[in-house]
Amino acid sequence: MMKGCPVKLLKKYLICFCLLLCLGSAGPAGAESRSTDLPQIRIVTSHFAPFNYLKEGKPTGFCTEIVRVLLKNLNISAPITTLPWARAYQTALKEKNTLIFTIARTPEREPLFHWIGVLVTGQSYLFSLKNRFIVLSSLDQARPYRIGAARDGIRGKYLSDAGIFELDLVADSRMNAVKLLNQRIDLWAEDELAAVHTIRQLGYDPGDILAKSLPLDLKPVPTGYLAFSRDTDKHLLAAFKHALAKFLLTEEYKAVRNRYIHPGPWAGNKR
User: Fold this and answer.
1) SS3 84
2) With contact defined as beta carbons under 8 Å apart, do 97 and 39 qualify?
3) Three-class SS of residue 153?
4) Among 8, 40, 156, 249, which has the highest number of CB atoms less than 10 A from its own CB?
5) What average pLDDT values come out for the chain (271 residues) when binned by 10 residues?
6) What's the pTM value of the predicted model, to 2 decimals?
């Protein structure tokens, strides 16, 4: 015992010292530790505007913003890598703890991924140029034409399964828009919102450029998901499922959607 130090005063010093240790180990006030045990993840996406795309070299878009919010809410830091669709898809197939978006959920893909939740739904068409409008009443009538689609995409597979094998498959769907404008393809298989947004990004009014030649009767209806690779930690899956379900009920989600999902009027169904 320290000489000349009263017992009560010494006890008081010891209590204060223990309290300081406890506060120091707790970290900053309000800090969350729920994600400290989650493994590192990889995030891949592709160009599929307005859902996910690059703007000034940075990933953005409706679905990208949702993913950013989930990462923030889960206290996870991970870069979002934009790749050609075929490469992003293969990466998510082969690498563990890999998040991919926006990916359509199909019967063929069902066992290949863990499906976290729906981000967006849409309608797909065969588009032609308005000034070279191609009238189609059935998919069989599209066989003589050059059709552009994304490699490893659901629309290309749908057309291939229907016996249309003369497809111009590209890694980036924007290439199909340019090919259509330059008349290097006759028809473009694409989601409506994505097609309208892409044409606008290229500096054109979609109402002056695009015409809907035929709706694609994809079954089930194309639904864009957030998904993880099969070899993914179960705690990651549970955390993201809960975070997404919770976020979709918020006003913040509605605000994000309103910023990106606004196709506006366009005369795509008119000649």
Assistant:
1) coil
2) yes
3) coil
4) 156
5) 44 43 37 59 94 94 96 96 94 97 92 96 93 95 94 90 89 90 96 90 93 90 90 97 96 91 56 44
6) 0.67
Phi first, then psi, for residue 144 (nearest 5°) are -70, -10
Residue entry with tokens 């409506």: 192
> Where does residue 56 fall: left (phi above 0), alpha (psi -120 to 50 degrees), or beta otherwise?
left
Torsion on CA atoms 58, 244, 173, 261, rounded to nearest 10: -90
How many CB atoms within 10 Å of residue 83?
Answer: 18
Burial state string for 245-255 with b = 16 or more CB within 10 A and e = fewer than 16 = eebeeeeebee
What confidence score (pLDDT) does residue 218 get?
87
Strand 223-229, strand 98-104: pairing: antiparallel
Dist. CA 119–CA 154, nearest whole Å: 16
Pairing of strands 58-60, 53-55: antiparallel
Q: What is the pLDDT of residue 260?
A: 85
Q: Which amino acid is at 181?
A: L
Longest dimension (CA), the chain: 103
Instruction: Please report the beta strands in the chain, taking only residues with DSSP state E, as ranges in sequence order.
Output: 42-45, 53-55, 58-60, 80-82, 98-104, 113-121, 124-129, 147-150, 167-170, 187-191, 210-215, 223-229
What burial class does residue 188 get, using C-beta atoms within 10 Å of its C-beta: 0-12 exposed, 13-18 middle, 19+ buried? buried
- Please, are residues 244 and 70 in contact by the beta-carbon 8 Å criterion? yes
Please answer whether residues 181 and 130 qualify as being in contact, where contact means their C-beta atoms are separated by less than 8 angstroms. no
Rama region for 183: left / alpha / beta (φ>0; ψ in -120 to 50; rest): left
pLDDT the model gives residue 263: 52
Question: What span, in angstroms and rounded, lies between the C-alpha atoms of 83 and 13?
Answer: 59
- For residues 31 and 158, what is the distance between their CA atoms, to the nearest angstrom? 48
pLDDT score of 121:
85
